[in-house]
Model the fold of this input.
Amino acid sequence: MFMNGSRRGRLDMSPGSSEDTPWLSIVLPTHQGERWLEDTLDSLVAQSDKGFECLVVDSSPDENTIGLAKNYADRLTLRFFKRVDLKHWRSKTNFGFSMARAPHVCMLHQDDFWLPQRSAVLREWLVAAPDISVHLHPSYVVDINGRRLGVWGCPLPASGTPIPRQILIERLLVQNFVSVPAPVIRRDSFLEVGGLDESLWYTGDWDLYLKLARAGAFAYHREALTCFRIHGSSLTMSGSRQVSDFESQMQSVLRSHISALPAARRNAVRSKALVSLRVNACLAAATNDPAPLKHLINAFGEVLGLGPVKMREYLFESRLFERLIPRLRARMAGNL
Done:
């Protein structure tokens, strides 16, 4: 966490307001990212609107990742920060957002990438609605070779207009349905809510979205514009092996934000959210157990226990199948 370094109103919110000021800052936290980084940076080179900057915040013990990224300095506006003291993506992202020059910021991890039209589409959204705190869209889920396995969307109205806050918070509390490369965030909104909680190794982004949802407006758009890569060495896969801590982190976020709802709605939402975190814990245990069937049966039992009405709501709000089926496809192909 870090102290707020900017207040709403101090930033020029007009994308492209100056040739010298980027309209978007992309924070790319890296650590020994040579395997995927070329795909990531190539996807930025392919953008038709390059009025953005990319901040590479690298914690690698060697210069290989930074050296690879510097090969793109003639095609992209890149800024480099060697920070071996920043050990995880949350601290590198907080640092990068604090150093960003643009009024809007986004995260891009070293194994994810953009589709070619993303920057042009984003710029249209930001020009039309610069006061929205967070613009969201779906992402494709891809495997180690970039093959599409499915679409990861959000259970939200895709109108591009502000989402009713209670609907947004209720559904976010049931499940973090936001893929990391999808949000575009007002930098001042990010700073005002304190950025990412660096103690939350798994749920830091979920906690961030809930803080932002409590403070400002979100808009959800229909187009899938980014690709989220799943592979065996990703943080989601490796971190989920710590099942007890994995579940504890989800419970912490739920406890922190359930009070944002009216008292009359808390019990109904809490019951679905608790099932969701137990299902996530069961699936994490199944992923890391050579005999996963018992964990899958437990997850199925948790869902059935909701009853028919809440079960339908949970399946819609959690995006369970959208998250699970791509991973099953990748595992069957030997890519996890």
About this structure: The chain has 13 helices and eleven strands.
